[in-house]
Amino acid sequence: MSKQTADEQNSLSILDDLIAIARRKGAEAADAVRIQGTSVNVSVRQGETEEIERSEAHDLGLRVLIGKQQAFVSSNDTKPELLEELVDRALAMARNIPEDEFCGLANPDLLAKDTLALDLYDETTLTPDDLVAIAKEAEDAALGVEGVTNSEGGGASTGSASIALATSGGFRGAYSSSSFSVSASVIAGEGQGMERDYDYDSRHYYTDMRSPSEIGKIAGERAVKLLNPRKMPSGQFPVVYSNRVSGSILGHFSGAISGASVARGTSFLKDQMGGQIFSEHINVIDDPHRSRGPASKPFDGEGVANRRLDLIQEGMLQCWILNSASAKQLGLETNGRATRGTASPPGSGTTNLYMEAGASSLEEIISDIKSGLYVTSLIGFGVNGITGDYSRGASGFWIEDGKIAFPVSELTIAGNLKDMFLNLTPADDLEFRQGTNAPSLRIDGMMVAGT
């Protein structure tokens, strides 16, 4: 169980007062959230500091319910007299809003009893000077790669965030997290033959980060490898998504199993519960309790106890992504995937979403491809959530005779996500860098449009 900090206790005290005022003034139920954050970001270019920016956020949100009417108000001021005004405004709005048959607080039986310790907060302190030095180290390493001719900059940041949630249904919880990031983006080549690429890392703990020099070196090497791209003819080919971009495929899947989309009938997977979505060797998991996970959280945005969900088991769809409202619409029970801001109803979303790694290396899954595309960059967003039709701009490298051969650009890849999911093979190179992660993915039978 996580021990609350003084700041977290203060936030919960403010939320308790806010909910008590709301109940006293006529709310039948209420919940409140406080989100605080600070960050320092620096950027450098050609060895000179371009920007040092510090930001702070202190946001407070209140939801009140009167019968089947609910309203949301937010503020960044916690003065006692202003809390009274906030409640008055919320109640006035609630009384004049149409009823929503699916609104309401989460079932008290489902609320989290303890706030789990997920090791999300690192007490390491970095000054602006430290961040400038880190950003310069990353940029210097990138500029030191032969063939790199210019820089779009190096960056470094540090920050912390605290989230507190309380409800009139009996939930009180808070947790904090820290963040550190480093990036570099550079240009290789000259004139009309220039290419750019980047690398970055972001972690809760500074000691978990890759070194700035490694990040810069990789950014430079990536840019150089893209020089002199070729245009390719159109045709049907295997497409391999690098693990830099493969998470986007999993993102389309998670959007399609959102409870709200399914309830509205706007998902191409709306009739597929229990069906074969992927091949039988595919497992997809959402785990909010990964220690130091990029998107870990000890409870969801309604205070519901969350847990690992096996969304796909042996290719079969097991459940939707649900909050209380979407669960009610579908006649189900929330599975602790509510998200929450300060000025809108709870949404739903994944936490640490990932596809399990396959058994073969990247080299092995491309070894039998006579001609195909290895994608390292995607452009645009051409996905129809109702039909599953997929079309995006892409660049990367051409595969010839089982080897990555030369850079290519200005291509469009297209297919239908239902077919893409069924024809997908994962490599063994899964890395946890973001909230949604997948290994490199081979998808056979896609259309590639070139010149």
Distance between the termini: 59 Å
Instruction: Give the CA-based shape.
Output: globular
- List the total number of helices: 9
Q: Tell me the count of domains.
A: 2
What is the typical, i.e. mean, pLDDT? 96
Strand order of the largest sheet: 3-2-1-4-5-6
Q: Quickly give the structural class.
A: alpha+beta
Which sequence of SSEs, written as H and E, runs from N to C?
Answer: HEEEHHEEEHEHHEEEHEEEHEEEHEEE
**Radius of gyration of CA atoms, rounded to a whole number:** 24 Å
The counted number of beta strands is 19
How would you describe this protein?
A hairpin with a 7-residue loop joins strand 11 and strand 12. The model has no long low-confidence stretch (mean pLDDT 96). The strands form four sheets. The protein has a six-stranded antiparallel sheet with strand order 3-2-1-4-5-6. Strands 7-14-15-16-19 form a five-stranded mixed barrel. It is of the alpha+beta class and 451 residues long. It has helices spanning 6-24, 80-94, 128-143, 212-225, 247-256, 259-264, 324-329, 362-366, 417-422, and strands at residues 29-45, 48-66, 69-75, 148-167, 172-188, 195-203, 235-241, 284-286, 309-313, 316-317, 338-339, 347-348, 353-355, 371-383, 389-400, 403-416, 424-426, 436-437, 441-449.
